# Entry
Amino acid sequence: MMKHSVVLDEQRCRGCTSCIKSCPTEAIRVRGRKATILADRCIDCGRCIHICPHKAIRSVGDNLSRLQDFSYCIALPEPALYGQFHRLDDVDIILNALLKIGFDKVWEVAKASELLADRARQEMKHGGHGARPQISSACPTVLRLIRMRFPKLIDHVAPTILPMELAAILARREAVAETGLAPEKIGVFAIVPCSSKVTAATTPEGLQKPVLDGAFAIRDIYLRLLSPMKDITDPEALSTAGILGIGTAASGGEGTARLGGRCVSVDGISNVIQVLEALEDGRLDEADFVELFACTQGCLGGCFNVENPYAARMQIKDLMKGLPVSRNRCREGDQALMLRDKELQYLPSFLLDQDREQAMAKQLKIQELEAHLPGLHCGSCGAPSCHAFAEDVVMGRASEGDCIFKVRAKMRSIAAEGDPDSYLPAPFRHRADDTVHKG
# Structure
């Protein structure tokens, strides 16, 4: 089973049910006044982290002590890191500071983004291939969402790996040539903006084996960078990316980097789902490329960032002033490295039973039970909807008595006197007099 980076702190959780309706894959339940996450349905989007009022759900990256496990360590900063600093006018200050906090080499993910974009432009010149419109493969949350809820669109996903994965492959290869060390002696770590990429570092969607040794949260690296950055007055020129690479930190950046074609850029998990539904229905067929980010404003909205995503986007724009459009071209020999070596497969997370006959029988039971539920989707049962609750009952994750309306019906059947509605929250109680008096 996949190891997720989104985790629950039971001591902080109060069972408030704020999280259950925000999950795009209905992966959260509240039972016994505590939330639980259904691991097979979680896509590490981080939506629940933003929603939880008690900070009971969080995401964890690797600890910097991991650097001690390797003879030589490489930092792969995502371009979203650059947008976290106010009044910064030179990316090289960040890159030099990374060397001061324990890394031996820096290899920008923005450079890998430019290489992938150049490959896409070359493909467009030759007419491209595969189903259209093509869907970006840059957001691991979107990839898992498609595998789980929109398997018919798998053929539309671009065949390329994540930019941070390409950066890891190329950085390790360079370091082996420069140092003479064995590949396993070299630690390659991404500095990422979201929980999804932490999970992808150890459980890649399109690769047979991980190419990264771990991933650090931007918020953790940010705090360590502040002090050394103040002391850097004449930074060494380390930056290797231009406008197109750094611009991929924000929604629309990948489409812009393709320099042509009809591109649709969408951010925010709810908007992403709407677009995927449209694509599944055969709409948006006039588009050539669809760029989808689970987070608001793209990677700048990830849960590991420290800056407001809109302010971070403004900072990214300031950093791009004066830079060349692009500094990198894809070499023919590297194109094979950019492609997945594992096909995306359907994730049967909503499968009721491996046996088709049993699955159909369970589906009929779910429909029958749901028909006798109020359909208010109040969440008091701990499930996000009445359908999800009916499924939980049939699958043995809940009992009918968990529905407060079922409790009321039972109370009416056994109580000759009294008001069984008193067991319900105030908004759901019947009024003694439904007449509305005016004046």
Q: What stands out?
A: The domain at 356-438 is CATH 1.10.15.40 (3-methyladenine DNA Glycosylase II; Chain A, domain 3). The first strand starts at residue 6 and ends at 8. Residues 110 and 245 are 4 Å apart (CA to CA).
